[in-house]
Amino acid sequence: MENIVLHVDDVYKSFGGLHALSDIDLQIAEGKTHAIIGPNGAGKSTLLNVCIGRLKPDSGAVVFDGQILTGKKPYEINQLGVARVFQTPEIFPDLTVRENVIIPALAKRDGAFAVDAWRGMARENDLRDEAEAAVTDVGLEDKLGHEAGSLSRGDKRRLELAMCLVQKPRLLLLDEPTAGMSRLDTNRTIDLLKRIKARGMTKVIIEHDMHVVFSLADKVTVMAQGRIIAEGTPDEVRGDPVVQEAYLGGGHA
Fold first, then answer.
1. Residues 115-126: what's their mean pLDDT?
2. What is the CATH number of domain 1-81+169-253?
3. Closest CA relative to residue 13, chosen from 27, 3, 4, 23
């Protein structure tokens, strides 16, 4: 029997008169890659923001590994083992690639720390080794000393992924991880995410690119107008006429 590591339980979220999420019941099995797809405005990113504490649902709850996340602050959720790669990379542009990855490694180890004290701690060999291993994992080892702001968009996205991986999360949430990437970079990212899966890390991926979804997902949830309209294996979803009409027939999410 599958172990459910994340349960979004009967979640509703509205903005004014707009129902962004309605009756969302989503279960994510441990060690699996679960994709969430749907047209623009379907509520996918809103759902992820509810999961990581950036938005509070109007009703319902998010449960991670038996702990209720609803009401916790984003950093508290992160400390429990949930990391997220954002649609727009969130990095420290004036710091080097190495320094960008050391910061979350330090935060994971020590919790809160004084901003002006991190540089001294960053010289510790164990943190440097962990950071450099994560950077190598995403293929940026030749840019360890480069300023993060000088990286290409694709490399910035890989850097943010390294910043998540160095925390060794149990659950990794990825909001369009290949957006803006060339096909070559997209395929490299697919290969990287497959390697991560082999380590047992659970992943939830929001993605427009069906090549990415069908290359990685064990299960796919389809959303439209804030609701789940279908769920199943990639083959089941691909052949569902409701999905084809609402989404796949349109060519892209």
1. 59
2. 3.40.50.300
3. 23
